[in-house]
Amino acid sequence: MEHIVQIGVCVDDESIEKAVVQSATRAITKEMKDHIFNPYGSSMTYVAEEIVKDAIVQWKPEIIEKAAELVADSIKRSKAYREKMKEITG
């Protein structure tokens, strides 16, 4: 006996993009702070923070693309995804 399985997924692209941008911004800012300023023992100044923010704005499309790839890879490696794919493909 054959079964037809239909799966519907509702994805709010705007909220995902916003979350990815916020997460990437925090991660990149922290990494840039650590690599640029912490070795010299000084804290970030206002000017340095502005430089980091400008860099993030400049590279926003690349950041979003890379973050989306990481999220997709993470989902593909999840147990829930593998189980659902196993159910679908039989």
Task: Describe the protein in words.
The protein has four helices and no strands. With 90 residues, it is mainly α. The protein has one domain. Helix 1 packs across helix 2 and helix 1 packs across helix 3. It is elongated and about 65 Å long. The protein starts with 12 loop residues before the first helix and ends with a helix. The mean pLDDT is 78.
Topology at a glance:
Layout: H1 13-36, H2 46-58, H3 60-76, H4 79-89
Helix pairs in contact: 1-2, 1-3
Quick structural summary:
Helices cover 72% and strands 0% of the residues.
Determine the strand fraction and express it as a percent band.
under 5%
The total domain count is: 1
Q: Mean pLDDT across all residues, rounded?
A: 78
- The string of secondary-structure elements, in order, is HHHH
Distance between the termini: 13 Å
Spans of at least 5 consecutive residues whose pLDDT stays below 50 are none
Shape: elongated
User: Radius of gyration in whole Å, from Cα?
Assistant: 20 Å
- Structural class by secondary-structure content: mainly alpha
What is the tally of helical segments? 4
Could you describe the largest sheet, including whether it forms a barrel?
none
Helix content: over 70%
Task: Give the total of beta strands.
Answer: 0
